[in-house]
Amino acid sequence: MNHETPTAPARKTQTESHAARPAPVIAISGLSKRYDSGFEALKHVDLEIQRGEIFALLGPNGAGKTTLISIICGLVNATGGSVVVDGHDSVTDYRAARAKIGLVPQELTSDAFETVWNTVRFSRGLFGKAPNDTHIEQVLKALSLWDKRKNQLITLSGGMKRRVLIAKALAHEPEILFLDEPTAGVDVELRRDMWEVVRELRNSGVTIILTTHYIEEAEEMADRIGVINGGEIVLVREKAALMRQLGSKQLTLHLQTPLASVPPALAHHPLTLAEDGNVLVYTYDASEAGDSGHVSISALINEIEAAGIRFKDLHTKQSSLEDIFVNLVRERS
Amino acid sequence: MNLQAVRSIYVFEMARAGRTLLQSLISPVISTSLYFVVFGAAIGSRIQEVEGVSYGAFIVPGLIMLMLLTQSVSNASFGIFFPKFTGTIYEVLSAPISYFEIVLGYVGAAASKSAILGLVILGTANFFVDLHIQHPFMMMLFLLLTALTFSLLGFIIGIWADSFEKLQLVPLLIITPLTFLGGSFYSIDMLPPLWQAVTLANPVVYLVSGFRWSFYGISDVSVVASLVMIGVFLAVSLAVISWIFRTGYRLRP
């Protein structure tokens, strides 16, 4: 992805320096939602989405992900608070706000008997754009739907229907794209394809907000990650910083002969014994796992050898976003 | 005004009817023809004339009204219920269009379809009986206003219904009985006095009567009363729809 490097550093400085911070493309403040049933889906949510980023919203089922997206896109009325989309209030200036947004819903919905072509063309018109068959052709080709354009939607597979929904959302050339669980129930290959499509969109300047259950997806795609739980935004952080901050790395050594205790010579290192003394575990901060980290690990291994400890095997493991996420959600609940 | 969106909805809905031409057009024409055979030929041969008009010709406006009412309601209710049922309504709700434009697209298409159908039935009737339309302009006015008003009613039903059963309920339990008892096939003069009085509470009587007047210059109630009744219907439907959209009822939780 060499072609994206010019924009990537720019984005980073934008989000990290508060002084030169540009106006967010979406500004959510004090957003709350209580359904008629009494269920409080969102509790005073504040969130800013930066222009051109891929923002992943993570959260367990019922955390409020879909409600949040639905309010921004106009499907659900908020109980309180406001959403401003590129300077336009989503309620008082809904036309301008909604025209900028494309939404790919979680549910696979389709006008069963329509053709792919007609349904995508309809979407463009619905958003008030003059017909542009060239653009629709481009969208369909980018999503490998061109060959299926004359097919009725009912004849398509689940993965293809998902692509049609994306095509519909892109038909009016939105600046902001919401993907609500875009790869739920999609096979691995198609998931990779979709990630590719999303990256290309981002490279063309589209801001992307996706919700997902798959931590792998957020880890792979996102620039920033927000975690929502119980209707509250628990954390918003750049992915890399999040991984650095909360991620720890472990070096595991499988010993040739079990140890009763960590030798005193090595006591100043954060070493622990596991599996009845058969395994020696070294835990260290992933953020120091750069050049200096490697030096310290090789030094550690020298010390271990010098202490007369022999090992059969070793491996390292970095805590994944999933570990971080599970810990976060567990902490709060 | 997002005319592009209104046009998109309108064209999309009309295209749907084009695809289902058989049920949209041919089946109402066939059922109307059956009414002519049964009521016009079989029964009509025993009833000489009603207020100076042959029975076959007398029932034409009533038949058109019957079709207009039922088709407007079913077209419009299905048109909005279906996307709600399949979930594709999300797209309409997320689009930069106003409630008014949504109604214009969906109800406009439904009303157009039933108005066209009304004219097709009129053409079909021409094969069976001699037709003279005394007030063609008023005839068109009644036709269009009725199609519009009952399409609005259908739209309301389509939004209210959360199951196919409910979708059928109102047309089956209310619209059809009111239409059959609304003087489609008879003049209310034929009824005993008590029932004449009861019938006047049926709004459809006013529609059929006014529509028939535009054909033959004969009516059960005054034309002004008929127009006022359609106006009231229209106003009530519009008020309900604006309430639906103001509160987000069944559309935006």
UniProtKB/TrEMBL annotation, chain A:
Keywords: ATP-binding, Nucleotide-binding, Transport
Region (Disordered), start-end ranges: 1-20
ABC transporter domain residues: 26-255
Pfam families: ABC_tran
Claim: NADP is one of the keywords in the record: no
Gene3D superfamilies tied to this protein: P-loop containing nucleotide triphosphate hydrolases
UniProt GO MF annotations: ATP binding; ATP hydrolysis activity
Alphabetical list of InterPro entries matching this protein: AAA+_ATPase, ABC_transporter-like_ATP-bd, ABC_transporter-like_CS, ABC_transporter_ATP-binding, P-loop_NTPase
Name of the protein described by the UniProt record: ABC transporter ATP-binding protein
Organism encoding this protein: Salinicola corii
TrEMBL record, chain B:
Single annotated GO MF: ABC-type transporter activity
Keywords: Cell membrane, Membrane, Transmembrane, Transmembrane helix, Transport
Chain ranges passing through the membrane: 20-43, 55-82, 102-129, 141-161, 167-187, 194-215, 221-245
Compartments, record wording: Cell inner membrane; Membrane
Keyword match Cell membrane: yes
Membrane topology: Multi-pass membrane protein
Highest taxon in the source lineage: Bacteria
Alphabetical list of InterPro entries matching this protein: ABC-2_transport_permease, ABC2_TM, ABC2_TM_bact-type, ABC_2_transport
GO CC annotations on file: ATP-binding cassette (ABC) transporter complex
Span of domain ABC transmembrane type-2: 19-248
Location (main, coarse): membrane
Family note: Belongs to the ABC-2 integral membrane protein family.
PANTHER family given in the database record: INNER MEMBRANE TRANSPORT PERMEASE YADH-RELATED (PTHR43332), TRANSPORT PERMEASE PROTEIN (PTHR43332:SF1)
The protein's name: Transport permease protein
Organism expressing this protein natively: Salinicola corii
